[in-house]
Design a protein that fits this description.
CATH class of the largest domain: Alpha Beta
Number of domains: 4
Radius of gyration: 57 Å
CATH superfamily of the largest domain: EAL domain
Number of strands: 22
Transmembrane segments: 6-25, 37-56
Helix content: 40-55%
CATH architecture of the largest domain: Alpha-Beta Barrel
Coiled coil: 78-112
Structural class: alpha/beta
Largest sheet: 8 strands, mixed, barrel
Domain GGDEF: 253-387
Organism: Candidatus Afipia apatlaquensis
Strand content: 15-25%
Domain EAL: 396-646
Length: 651
């Protein structure tokens, strides 16, 4: 210890000396006692320091290290937290931006939908309402702003006259709970409302003004059940109503079904035009409507066909007959159509329910049979269905079936009636007239099957056969003889008549100038451009056009018709009256004079006496045809002996 102390004193003495030199201090004499004290003190420090280091400084050092470590951990945690806060802040900002965009899209969608949108909370207060909602109910933005109560909105709408046409308390108590409803507003408009109930007790409503749509729907429904020209119920409505009343007939009364059409309507339509025809139909509809009771129904089935459902209190015929007679009378009165007076009639067929059945379709069929019977009996009358009418129709159906088979089996043949030149007294040709060689009923004349062929459309096929066969037959005649073939208006409707005629001429080898085609006035009265075009084409290749039954039609259009033809045929009714009726003679003379002025030749048909033939010659007719000259005969008879004998008869 003494050695250590001495060594330590030496070190301190040197240390103090060094300090004196380093700091430029004057050498100071140091007391040994001071050195010893310093040695003692420093020795104490040297001795105590290890203990302090071990038990204090080392512990403090460890604590400082731990604090440093904790500090770094805190810094790391702080950086992590700051990073996370930054990320979260960015996420929240993005979400807020997306929410704003979503709100903008929602507001844009709500404002741009065609429906009015209004969202209420559970307390019946507005959360949001778009402008269209305000427009529908004529409300200002202030009146539909958020927080407005349903009651306030209803009161505002009442002031504007856009409240519902039901009591407010009823609407709030009952209608507000409905998912969908259509309501009328006090101002006459109609709105469609859809509701969606929300989980929090609120609800979303969608409102659409469907006034125009409902009007269009009603218009479509009206047009679906009513005739646009006359405003009467149409066929569909008539059938539907008939089904209803026949189902009830017998329990609450009886029913009469009337089917009627107009007589001579086509003549009015042809002479005065379609506009006048439409006006006539509207007038007829008005007159029919004035004759029925409120609980009866009158309908237009189409064309000039009408129908009536008459409801009866009992199974008696008197009211039915009375109505039929009134209809015939009122329709028979003259019609004034744009300055023209027109007259038509009506034919009526009637079926009774339940007397003659309860099925609506069957009643219509039976009324139609009765109508057919009226037409067959002379028109402008009425008939109530009876069982015999069915037999007649069954016969017609059988005849129609046989007619179809007859075409397939070639049961037809052509007869020829000679035509005489009144100047040369020689036969110049013949008119081809079809006959049906029926396997059971023998030879049938045209009036026994041609009307049926016209009705069924078989006349087109039949007419084509007549054209082809007539051309083939005439091709074998002497070159100076012509053949006349009748055409139906149905053949013009097909659109290929010119081609058919051309083919018949080419296939048979008949010269076009030897072919005459006879048409009726109705073909020209239709005044269809395609008809006139066909006639011009036929005339251009040399075929002659003959107007049949002239002078029975309409004088107002005669000159126009004559310009389209090469020859006219005076109807036999005027020829027969020449010898006894001054009027008939005058008509024949004026017709011949008119034709002469236009350079058209004239044929008189139905000549049966020498006196008629003589007067026709004096009047200037060119040709004559009738029983006096010769009856229709088979081809062989006409070629072998007919021509010479006919010439001798009238010589």
């Amino acid at each position: 210890m003494t050695a250590f102390r001495l060594l330590w004193m030496l070190i301190l003495t040197v240390f103090v000396g060094e300090l004196t030199i380093m700091f430029g201090l004057q050498f100071v004499h140091v007391d040994n006692r001071l050195i010893e004290a310093m040695v003692d003190a420093s020795s104490l420090v040297v001795i105590v320091f290890p203990f302090l280091y071990l038990f204090v400084f080392r512990t403090m050092s460890n604590n400082i290290h731990e604090l440093e470590l904790a500090k770094h951990q805190l810094w790391d945690a702080n950086e992590t937290l700051e990073h996370r806060i930054k990320e979260r802040t960015e996420e929240v900002s993005e979400q807020a931006a997306e929410l704003r965009r979503a709100n903008e899209r929602f507001e844009s969608a709500v404002e741009n939908v065609p429906q009015g949108i209004c969202l209420f909370d559970a307390n019946q207060r507005v959360i949001v309402a778009n402008a269209r909602y305000g427009e529908i109910y004529k409300l200002t933005p202030e009146e539909i702003k958020p927080g407005t109560t349903l009651q306030e909105i209803l009161e505002s709408r009442k002031r504007q006259g856009t409240n519902f046409a039901i009591a407010t308390d009823v609407y709030r108590a009952v209608n507000i709970k409905k998912v969908h409803e259509i309501l009328d507003l006090a101002d006459g408009r109609t709105v469609s409302i859809s509701r969606s109930v929300l989980s929090d007790g609120g609800w979303l409503t969608s409102h659409e003004d469907i006034t125009q749509r409902r009007q269009n729907e009603r218009k479509v429904a009206y047009l679906a059940t009513h005739d646009p020209l006359t405003g009467l119920p149409n066929r569909a409505c008539f059938v539907s109503e008939l089904e209803r009343v026949t189902a009830e007939s017998g329990a609450i009364g009886n029913t009469a079904v009337f089917l009627l059409d107009l007589d001579r309507f086509k003549a009015v339509n042809d002479t005065l035009g379609h506009a006048a025809g439409d006006q006539l139909l509207k007038e007829v509809a008005s007159r029919l409507s004035s004759e029925i009771r409120e609980h009866d129904l009158v309908a237009r089935l189409g064309g000039d066909e009408f129908a009536i459902i008459q409801n009866l209190d009992a199974a008696v015929h008197e009211p039915v007959i009375s109505l039929a007679l009134r209809i015939i009378d009122v329709i028979g009165r003259p019609f004034e159509l744009d300055g023209h007076i027109a007259s038509v009639g009506t034919s009526i067929g009637i079926a009774l329910c339940p007397e003659q059945g309860r099925d609506g379709t069957e009643l219509i069929k039976k009324a139609d049979l009765a109508l057919y019977a009226v037409k067959e009996g002379g028109r402008n009358n009425f008939r109530i269905y009876d069982a015999e009418m069915t037999e007649v129709v069954e016969h017609q159906k059988l005849l129609e079936s046989e007619l179809t088979r007859a075409i397939e089996r070639e049961e037809f043949e052509l007869y020829y009636q000679p035509v005489l030149d009144l100047k040369t007294r020689r036969v110049t040709g013949a008119e081809a007239l079809i006959r049906w060689n029926h396997p059971e009923r023998g030879m049938l004349s045209p009036d026994q099957f041609i009307p049926l062929a016209e009705e069924t459309g078989l006349i087109v096929t039949l007419g084509e056969w007549v054209l082809q066969q007539g051309c083939r037959d005439a091709a074998a005649w002497p070159e100076n003889l012509r053949v006349a073939i009748n055409l139906s208006a149905h053949q013009f409707n097909c659109g290929n008549l010119f081609d058919l005629v051309l083919c018949a001429l080419v296939e048979s080898g008949l010269s076009p100038w030897r072919l005459e085609l006879e048409i009726t006035e109705f073909v020209l009265l239709d005044n269809r451009p395609e008809y006139l075009q066909t006639l011009r084409q036929l005339k251009n290749i040399g075929v002659s056009i003959v107007l049949d039954d002239f002078a029975t039609g309409h004088s107002a259009t005669r000159q126009l018709m004559l310009e389209a033809v090469d020859r006219i045929k005076i109807d036999k009714s005027f020829v027969h009256g020449m010898t006894s009726q001054r009027e008939s003679s005058a008509i024949v003379a004026s017709t011949i004079a008119l034709a002469r002025g236009l350079g058209i030749s004239v044929t008189a048909e139905g000549v049966e006496t020498h006196e008629q033939l003589h007067q026709l010659s004096l009047a200037g007719a060119d040709l004559a045809q009738g029983y006096l000259i010769g009856r229709p005969m088979p081809l062989g008879d006409f070629l072998s002996e007919g021509r010479q004998s006919h010439a001798e008869i009238v010589a």
